[in-house]
Design brief:
The structure holds two protein chains of two kinds. Chain A is an alpha/beta fold. Chain A is built from eleven helices and nine strands. Chain A folds into two domains: about 140 residues, Aspartate/ornithine carbamoyltransferase (Rossmann fold, 3-Layer(aba) Sandwich); about 150 residues, Rossmann fold (3-Layer(aba) Sandwich), CATH 3.40.50. In chain A, helix 1 packs across helix 11, helix 2 packs across helix 11 and helix 5 crosses helix 11. The two termini of chain A are about 20 Å apart. Chain B has a single domain, classed as Rossmann fold, CATH 3.40.50.2020. In chain B, strand 6 and strand 7 form a beta hairpin. Classes of the chains: A alpha/beta, B alpha/beta.
Amino acid sequence: MRNPQLNPAGELQHLLSIEGLPRAILNQILDTADSFVGVTEREVKKVPILRGKSVFNLFFEPSTRTRTTFEIAAKRLSADVINLNIAASSQTKGESLLDTVANLSAMQADIFIVRHVASGAPYLIARNVKPHEHVVNAGDGRHAHPTQGLLDLYTIRHYKKDFTQLTVAIVGDILHSRVARSLIHGLTTLGTPEVRVIGPQTLLPTGVESLGVKVFHDMKKGLVDADVVVMLRLQNERMRGALLPSAQEFNKYYGLSLDKLALAKPEAIVMHPGPMNRGVEIDSSVADGPHSVILPQVTYGIAVRMAVMSIIAGN
Amino acid sequence: MTTLPDAETLCAKLVAELRSVIKPSTAMIGLYTGGAWLAKKLHPQLGLSTPLGLMDIAFYRDDYHKQGLHHDPKRTRIAFEVEGRDLLLVDDILYTGRTVRAAMNELFDYGRPASISLVVLADRGGRQLPICAQYCGTRVEVPEGQRLRMKRNAEGRLSLELEGA
């Protein structure tokens, strides 16, 4: 079966997941993002490439930060941006997902940025849009968050240059994290020799080893000699049932403190997709310390989203 | 078969011509890929006070809607203030003029230069926009169906070639 993200020529048509994307396309996105980082450092942070195109931000699940970064990225490409807070719109009146999209399509949409609580919703939309319309997954359920994964990859490449020499440790709530899944697929495709996941049994998906990662329950062992430490947010709002005794206990065993970070390589970088729970998964001394690249991640995220939109809209 | 002039000789001619017009406010920008190669030859011989700027016009092209985004765009790097400069914009071959149009649009997103002059190794005619080169190494008649290219070998030597013959 053809990859639903690629057009018949093998070019990126939609961005739905990092899983299944060839290395050449990942590199194309990261290289293009690098050119856009140059644009975002200029006085005029805007290029004319998507002039006349309309980008619809369809957020069926609230997310101020991701929506804003897509909005900034689209505006810097000179597209017109329309933000739809679907939670407060027609769907609550009973309209189906595809009817909503068909209506927006009739308003001459070019790109749909979709965030949905249900895994697979962006795939359903991508299968039903017109050939000139493009879909970007901005997070679907527990499944994928490909632009976050890509901005993590961009950040790692920026600081560490070569994926084939790296040990990357991803720590925390892997079970509920679409960020972790996207990043693991990207790291594997780009040839990272060692990807570790660290967390309590209750927050690791069963069979996570099948993704090609090493599993650690003891954070102190898992961090040894890591080049990159990716901390995940403890997703309180997703917790169902008592997976953890308390946030304090989580911090003791799986929170990143200066002591624990000292086990990683001296030049290790620390990443976090945000928003951070200070004092839970990460201590302020680390988040604000010299190893932290958490704010550069946000800046690169805009360039990566500019790259994705400008590539797909041209294919 | 057309005999093409030697590119290195043309470079020397351009250097001689440009030396007489250099001012303290002059700066140079090369367009990827060929223009950057040529500019890297010219720039060190001109004693300019500013580092060479390099520009990729991928985000300003007028054929994006037909061709999509070019693969592997390079990052534009201009490490001097464009505002008030007398700019030498360098490309290898001048043809339709569309690349130069895109480059000028991008330049104005960096500032308002005092002037822009165009430097090319070869002008092959065929303009589709009202653009001309102020400094031109040579003019080449290109037979129908063929393409003039500037190449660079492993030693960095530049040469002109006709393709599709």
